[in-house]
Amino acid sequence: DVKVTQSSRYLVKRTGEKVFLECVQDMDHENMFWYRQDPGLGLRLIYFSYDVKMKEKGDIPEGYSVSREKKERFSLILESASTNQTSMYLCASSLYGNTEAFFGQGTRLTVV
Amino acid sequence: QKEVEQNSGPLSVPEGAIASLNCTYSDRGSQSFFWYRQYSGKSPELIMFIYSNGDKEDGRFTAQLNKASQYVSLLIRDSQPSDSATYLCAVNKGGGGNKLTFGTGTQLKVEL
C-alpha cells in the first residue's frame, strides 16, 4: 500500500514564525503536491513537484515556498505565518502520468 | 466559472436507495476524472477514476462520463449509512505534473 506520511497531525504556531510541514512517501512516486482545505473552498493546490528539485506554483502559492531535495520528501514552508494560513494542509503523491493521487493524513495548522 | 463544480448538498437519501452525485468541469481538454470520498476529519481516499466516455462499474459504485457535456457523475447503489461522507470530484487536465483540480465536494447523508 502507498503510504504518505505528514510529520504532524496538529500544529499551533505564532504569527510571524517560520513553519515547516514535512511529507514523506514510500512508493517512489514522481509527483508530490501540497493542498490546503478550507470549508466552502475545497482543496486548493499550493505547489507541486514532478521531480527532485523541480517545483511549480499551484493556484494559491503566495506566502508559501517548497523544497524537494529527495524524491520521497516534499516540504512546505510558511516563511512568516499569518492567521489566514490557519487551515488543513494535505500532502499527496502520484506516479508520473494520468494517475490518482494518494493523500497523507493531513496537518491541521492553527496560527495564533 | 469554477473549473470543477459540484453541488455542496447535503444530499439526503434513505438507506438502500441510489445516491447520484454530479460534477461539471470547464476545460474540454480534461483527460481523467476521479471521485474521492472524505469522512469528517480524515483525508480523501480514492473511490474510482474514469478516462473514457460511458460507464465504469466497481461494486456498488458506477462512474459516468460524458465529455461532450463536460459532465461526470457517481452513482452509489444500495446506499449505506457508512457511505455518509463528502464526495470530491477531481479533474486532471493532462500535461506535465499530473495536477488535479478539485471541486468543493458534495456532502451525502444516508438516513436509516
Please identify the structural class of chain A as seen in this structure: mainly beta
Unreliable segments of chain B (pLDDT under 50, ≥5 consecutive)? none
Shape of chain A: globular
Oligomer: heterodimer
Task: Please characterize this protein's 3D structure.
The complex is a heterodimer of chains A (112) and B (112). Chain A is an all-beta fold and 112 residues long. Chain A is built from no helices and 11 strands. In chain A, a hairpin with a 7-residue loop joins strand 9 and strand 10. The radius of gyration of chain B is 13 Å and the shape is globular. The mean pLDDT of chain B is 93. The termini of chain B are far apart. With 112 residues, chain B is mainly β. Chains A and B meet through strand 4, strand 5, strand 9 and strand 10 of A and strand 5, strand 9 and strand 10 of B.
List the helices and strands and how they pair.
The complex is a heterodimer of chains A (112) and B (112).
Chain A: E1 4-6, E2 10-13, E3 19-25, E4 31-38, E5 42-49, E6 56-57, E7 64-70, E8 73-78, E9 87-94, E10 102-103, E11 107-111
Chain B: E1 4-5, E2 11-14, E3 19-25, E4 32-38, E5 45-50, E6 54-58, E7 61-66, E8 71-76, E9 85-92, E10 100-102, E11 106-111
Parallel strand pairs in B: 2-11
Antiparallel strand pairs in B: 1-3, 3-8, 4-5, 4-9, 6-7, 7-8, 9-10, 9-11
